[in-house]
């Protein structure tokens, strides 16, 4: 007479392999947690760096100097198509790709830019006026003089430069159709800028004059149009 040889405690199938697989998954999870490689840990570090409070430079003479930490803000003003764009004072901010940022401990290159309604200086919107060719830190920046805009994004060992290439039929900003602007780690002529007086008819008269600390004039048509800057 046949008897049932299997009791409630008898394991069937590939139970041993399943146990080892669960143990390997747990070991891999603990190893990544100890190294800080979990997605939630990388996401937390990225937000902490990008939203790290920064201190802007205080101008005693009312002018911008090499080495100053500044924000690039486009003030709110009415336009014909204002309903198509974000209203309010918009500051230029770095916007790294979220998926790529979770897969690496470093910022992606090139890194995108966007405009945000934030007036508090943090890691993602605080730029540094950098020397371009032999200038001295602390020297007054003048109209028509070369300089670079660098940003660390809240990281201590990373510097990205604001760069832009000429507009082509195949490469331009998506909404404004002007030249694209991005952040890159390469030091080249593409990230060499010059401050220009807002009124084109007075630019020759103001050539060589000190740049006041409120000279930024942006465009609501897209972040890629920097009407306060011109590339040298």
From TrEMBL:
It comes from the Eukaryota. InterPro entries: CF161 (IPR055325). Keywords: Cell projection, Cilium, Flagellum. It holds the Pfam family CFAP161. This is Cilia- and flagella-associated protein 161 isoform X3.
